[in-house]
């Protein structure tokens, strides 16, 4: 957390019934367990992930929506791109098959079930059935085809239309990666370089793998905090919304005027800073970018109110209800850059129950280990052992699906001087400062200048929340089902770099690294890769 108080939590009354907004905006697609490449079919090597998914895995089924090939198998009625073919020429209309030249490159969509079940295959299908590209679990698959000779339009039309296994044919086009950002202050976001974000984005949002930059459903991250400047130009497009607003002020529940548009009331813009680190809009020509700049939505939950001393008061009851709201409204991740520090042992059964319920509902919960700056006597970075010194809710990171985060400096790679530590409860480190008390850059309320730097484990936590959201988005898009919170946590920790300087402070010296995270996802969930370059390197025997 930045240099401000960890707020006291106390047990209050839990309402039996709350007027929660329920929004069933989190849909899902049918997906498969894994895939078998043609190269490994004989050994029956299959990568299974169904046991780790939220819903039962099913065989892939095509979505019931119109296909470009429904009316005509061959869609080549356009000019060849001169960058792709030296024989470029204007082709005929969209309703006619143009003449084709040797070397022309095509993308052919094939029904794999047909290839596997037909006793007698047409000439083109004979090429694909022996291809190492084949992914047997896919009902339909696109194959690359480079022509070995010239074809007249009529000849090629007959060749395709006599083949029952061919779904459609189009040009094989080349796309450039669009992963770089034109946000003017992105070069100042040292935390992105420290976790190799720019190297990883082509994997997360590439043309041959990962997620599309637009589409639904989004990954929803609940920012349980001081509210969010939801009108901020770098956040507005990535705000989750429901029929009454963009989130909720939990403290207003039960009043005559429930606030469903919770603006940030922190004097330092804490919630807005956290939201920007997670999902500031990328490549929009404005400001900065978040860890998950596309396909993420911020659910703003203001979980405290200003007390008589001007401090943000957050209670157990507010926290519990905030987690309920997040779970009931389809949040995938909940970021808790909030906590209480104390000497001796401490627990909060109600908060633990709220976290447990959220995880059981499929929400990954991110907590932070805490930091100095609370103003208490002897305020130094401490080992959080739960006996001599406690940090809540960070100590609930031992629950499966809950991740505890500590801070390291981007300049040195060492633990941040302010960050508390624990090789039990701080399961991974992430950037919380450039060095010392020099914070990392993110969004601030426009009233506070729109952008600024804050240091703290509060800043490290959102980077892990963004990474968890990337894991969910990647697997959801490829498999049509979400990983469980337990599986999301496993992937994040398994992919972490092992840092010697952090090994005495965070579990296994774990350090967040998005490039390593992407590589782990591609290896363990191979359908994420839409190309073929990884098929032969999966280690199946």
Explain what this protein looks like in three dimensions.
- The chain is of the alpha/beta class and 541 residues long.
- It has helices at 112-117, 123-129, 153-161, 190-194, 197-204, 270-279, 316-328, 349-360, 457-479, 485-495, 514-524; strands at 74-75, 105-111, 140-146, 166-171, 205-206, 209-210, 219-225, 247-249, 296-302, 305-306, 312-313, 333-336, 340-343, 364-368, 389-392, 402-409, 428-433, 440-443, 451-454, 497-498, 510-511.
- The protein has a seven-stranded parallel β-sheet with strand order 8-9-7-12-14-16-17, with helices on both faces. A four-stranded mixed β-sheet has the order 1-4-2-3.
- Strand 10 (305-306) and strand 11 (312-313) form a beta hairpin.
- Helix 9 packs parallel to helix 11 (514-524) and helix 10 crosses helix 11.
Low-confidence runs of at least 5 consecutive residues: 1-66, 78-94, 173-181, 532-541
The helix content is: 10-25%
Net shape: elongated
Arithmetic mean pLDDT: 78
Question: What proportion strand?
Answer: 15-25%
Strand order of the largest sheet: 8-9-7-12-14-16-17
What's this model, at a glance?
With 541 residues, the chain is α/β, with parallel strands linked by helices.
Attribute tags:
single chain; 541 residues; alpha/beta; seven-stranded parallel beta sheet; four-stranded mixed beta sheet; 11 helices; 17% strand; elongated; disordered N terminus; disordered C terminus
